[in-house]
């Protein structure tokens, strides 16, 4: 991995971070029942097993609060940027932006009012993960939701973290992910009464952390919020049909 490329990416993250908003920016975000919110998006990339280049880039748009699929876009893409921890956005964001652009051209009335991203936002090594990158470049509110804990800035998968997880009594309960410096970069959320394993929610863009957590919980039928779950299921199904010999 070339040092100049990493430096270029770090510089780009720094530049984009200046534009990031981590406060509520839309009227619906401040309302108890999110009235005014009608469309929630979800994005994901699924890879053919053993192939880290060819993937299905997926966008779905669901109705809110019904969480029924209104729109889906599955597209095979070839990733050109290398995988480097902390810089996942440079591999994936261009294809997710293209999906949003196609939607804007085809059915602009279905453009989501918020996008759930399968990955982290501010909870990231450099406080600018995939959800932040996509949010700033798309100009849409974004929420990062990760299924596994990124051990970053002193947040660790240790006994204390496990005891905090054990203390989550019911769906909607959460605790902050606090860095060594005392900064809160996200929250661990018990997404449903049935799911004891939390998900990790962080701000992407144009939304506050508390609103992001509340909205994520309201979109969960299972452990993972429905927009991301549908994007994941549909991209895997797309690969399964087109590449039946590959185990995805």
Helix and strand arrangement:
Layout: H1 3-17, E1 39-47, E2 54-63, E3 69-78, H2 89-106, E4 114-118, H3 130-138, E5 142-146, H4 159-166, E6 174-178, E7 184-189, E8 199-205, H5 209-218, H6 226-242
Parallel strand pairs: 1-4, 4-5
Antiparallel strand pairs: 1-2, 2-3, 5-8, 6-7, 7-8
Helix pairs in contact: 2-3
Structure, briefly:
GO terms for molecular function: DNA binding; metal ion binding; RNA endonuclease activity producing 5'-phosphomonoesters, hydrolytic mechanism; single-stranded RNA binding. By secondary structure, the chain is α+β, with helices and mostly antiparallel strands.
Task: Round the Cα radius of gyration to an integer and report it.
Answer: 17 Å
Q: What is the count of DSSP helices, taking H or I runs of 4+ residues?
A: 6
**The CATH homology group name:** archaeoglobus fulgidus dsm 4304 superfamily
Structural class: alpha+beta
Point out poorly predicted stretches.
none
């Amino acid at each position: 991995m070339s040092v100049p490329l990493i430096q270029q990416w770090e510089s780009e993250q720094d530049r984009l971070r200046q534009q990031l908003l981590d406060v509520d920016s839309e009227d619906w975000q401040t309302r108890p029942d999110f009235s005014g919110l009608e469309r929630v998006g979800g994005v994901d990339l699924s890879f053919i097993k053993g192939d880290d280049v060819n993937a299905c880039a997926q966008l779905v748009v669901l109705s809110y609060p019904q969480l029924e699929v209104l729109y889906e876009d599955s597209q095979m893409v070839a990733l050109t940027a290398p995988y480097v921890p902390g810089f996942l956005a440079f591999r994936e964001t261009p294809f997710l932006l293209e999906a949003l652009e196609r939607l804007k051209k085809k059915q602009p009335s279905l453009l989501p009012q918020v996008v759930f991203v399968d990955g982290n936002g501010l909870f990231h090594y450099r406080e600018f993960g995939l959800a932040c990158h996509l949010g700033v470049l798309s100009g849409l509110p974004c929420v990062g939701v990760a299924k596994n804990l990124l051990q970053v800035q002193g947040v660790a998968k240790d006994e204390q973290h496990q005891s905090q997880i054990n203390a989550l009594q019911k769906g909607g309960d959460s605790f902050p992910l606090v860095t060594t410096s005392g900064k809160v970069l996200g929250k661990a959320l018990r997404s449903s009464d049935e799911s004891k394993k939390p998900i990790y929610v962080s701000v992407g863009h144009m939304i506050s952390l508390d609103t992001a957590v509340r909205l994520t919980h309201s979109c969960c039928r299972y452990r993972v919020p429905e927009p991301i779950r549908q994007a994941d299921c549909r991209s895997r199904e797309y690969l399964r049909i087109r590449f039946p010999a590959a185990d995805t």
